[in-house]
Specification:
The chain is α/β, with parallel strands linked by helices and 263 residues long. The chain has helices spanning 16-27, 39-49, 66-78, 101-129, 150-169, 200-203, 212-225, 236-245, 247-262; strands at residues 7-10, 31-36, 54-58, 83-86, 132-137, 175-182, 185-186, 210-211, 229-232. The structure holds NADP nicotinamide-adenine-dinucleotide phosphate.
Length: 263
Amino acid sequence: MNLEGQVVLITGASRGIGEACAHAFARRGARLILTSRNATNAERVCRAVAPAPAVALGADLSRPGQAAGLAGRALACYGGVDVLVNNAGVGLYLPCWEAESALIREMVEVNFFAPLELIRNLVPHMQRNGSGVIVNVSSVAGKVALPWLTIYSATKAALNFLSDGLRMELQGTGVRVVTVCPGYVSTGFPQHILGGRIPYAVAARQRFTITAERCANAVVEGVRKGKRTVVTPPSAWLFVAAARLLPGPVHAIMARMRAADAH
Ligand SMILES: NC(=O)c1ccc[n+]([C@@H]2O[C@H](COP(=O)([O-])OP(=O)(O)OC[C@H]3O[C@@H](n4cnc5c(N)ncnc54)[C@H](OP(=O)(O)O)[C@@H]3O)[C@@H](O)[C@H]2O)c1
């Protein structure tokens, strides 16, 4: 796909992977719609990608109804959206029984319901055009449940299934779906979690961390080349394969890493 002139809507574009995606799509000649809770944060990134055309929109995606409203406002910016990058996301490093249900619901809204609502509101327009790309930024945690991020993993696994089913639903329509599963990416994500903290044993092992720029380049290449799934870094496939082939030992190791910190 040639991205020159394409309209790309990126949620969570005020920092981290979303901000890096804004720069990466801008370099390919795309026109951008960048969102964050507060439009002022996205406006900073709009200025940074200049002279690429970019519009900032604010929407708190933890609030039901905001995603549908955002889709309407985004369609009005340039008359359509060619690429939707569902990137906004939050984490929660608390065991299921300790996390308050309000926080769990907030995370599920941002990580699952908001992407679904944006898809529900934008896919009909893409179908009518006979083209479009939905990018769902999931996580390796959506392929392998991480016990220090159990509920987060569940939201990302749900997003992965949504992507797979949607891709099949859209077969032959010209609308594609790309699932992006990053491993650890160096962003402010751990500082913006809704609760809990990253276990020491996990933080100490993050030697395969990649930059947000590398992750964003993988996203753009995935869109350009029509990939189904982008796992970045590709070496994270080894972890996914190990957990599928040997779930007992791999789960036991991860449970020990979590427990070491819990005592
Ligand atoms: N970093 C990693 O290691 C990693 C690994 C795998 C997957 N991911 C996924 O990658 C995506 C981006 O993460 P990141 O690392 O770039 O995190 P980040 O630096 O914390 O950025 C998160 C973005 O989401 C936006 N956001 C948060 N809550 C929101 C809400 N309620 N409504 C609207 N926007 C909201 C933030 O904007 P404002 O705060 O300005 O509103 C910000 O732009 C997430 O889906 C995450 O799950 C990250």
